[in-house]
């Protein structure tokens, strides 16, 4: 019964994230801790709006052996396992392709976090170096930067991953990261106010894009 309720929770969270634009097509995945030994994780390459609880994979956390589920686990399962093994205080790990944070991942720089957002995100948003999606190499890159006080990470040229002590906290961290990324990008644009007119036009177009896509809150 505990597996079934958690599998349904994964479905609900995936649809919510897709509705708000944090997941796109089949890009994005998540894992929830069931107990000390098991996790549930989204399947690989399945449309969120067609996904049912039976599609959600139940895995043994220690070695990622599948216990139940009709589908193949997400190719990013190893990345979530790294988070949930190291962060025993966390019960959720969410990998997104959210627009602004994903754009900032191209810069390859950590983000400072203002005091009012540190309870959710930690003192800074760290960045894991580039590695191909779904590989052990990517999991190991993330593992190297995981810190007990940091709940949000950028994946170089790939997206973001956030964790939390509950599913709700992880969802809140995702939205907080997108707001932080948007604020950081706006500050970088403002700092270039003296650039040539041709560049200013491109920057203003980027600002208009940010204005047209406000950060979507995530309330489970």
TrEMBL record:
Keyword Glycoprotein: no
Keyword terms of this UniProt record: Lyase, Metal-binding
Pfam families: Aldolase_II
InterPro entries reported in the protein's UniProt record: Aldolase_class_II_sugar_metab (IPR050197), Aldolase_II/adducin_N (IPR001303), Aldolase_II/adducin_N_sf (IPR036409)
Domain Class II aldolase/adducin N-terminal span(s) in chain numbering: 8-185
UniProt keyword annotation of ATP-binding present: no
SMART domains: Aldolase_II (SM01007)
PANTHER family assigned: 3-OXO-TETRONATE 4-PHOSPHATE DECARBOXYLASE-RELATED (PTHR22789:SF0), FUCULOSE PHOSPHATE ALDOLASE (PTHR22789)
Protein name: Class II aldolase/adducin family protein
Organism in which the protein naturally occurs: Dyella acidiphila
